Amino acid sequence: MYAIVRDRGMQYRVEPGQTLRVDLLDVEPGAVVDFDEVLMVSNDSGVKVGAPLVEGAKVRAKVVGNIKGQKIIVFRYRNKKRYRRRTGHRQKYTNVKINEIIV
User: Fold this and answer.
1) How far apart are CA 8 and CA 23, in angstroms?
2) Is residue 17 pLDDT above 90, yes or no?
3) For residue 55, what are the CA distances in angstroms to 15, 32, 49, 50, 66?
4) How far apart are CA 29 and CA 96, in angstroms?
5) What is the C-alpha separation between 13 and 10, in angstroms, rounded?
6) pLDDT > 70 in the chain, percent
7) Which of 16, 35, 42, 52 lies closest to 94 in space, CA to CA?
8) In this predicted model, what pLDDT tens digit does every residue of 21-40 receive, in sequence order?
9) What is the dihedral of CA 100, 103, 40, 7, to 10 degrees?
10) Global pTM?
11) In what order do the strands lie in the sheet with 10-14?
């Protein structure tokens, strides 16, 4: 059984027991989060596709913790002008563990 959920513009394929990394959520570790925007659900009885969402379906997950992603370097320059700027960025993520898919 799996589902495709949408969370703030990103789509994820989730299964029960899977650990997923989503953009930072403003919740504490150990809290339960529901993803209400379910686009598709596939189980033993078949595939149910929403138009655009599946009615009454949601995915329940538990927040494991917050992490930081890999550092990326942003380098800007203008040629022949002696202009150089080097900055870095680390995106913050939340790890969630998918508990169940409710249809």
Assistant:
1) 9
2) yes
3) 19, 21, 10, 7, 30
4) 9
5) 10
6) 100
7) 35
8) 999 999 999 999 999 999 99
9) -50
10) 0.81
11) 10-14, 2-7, 38-43, 46-49
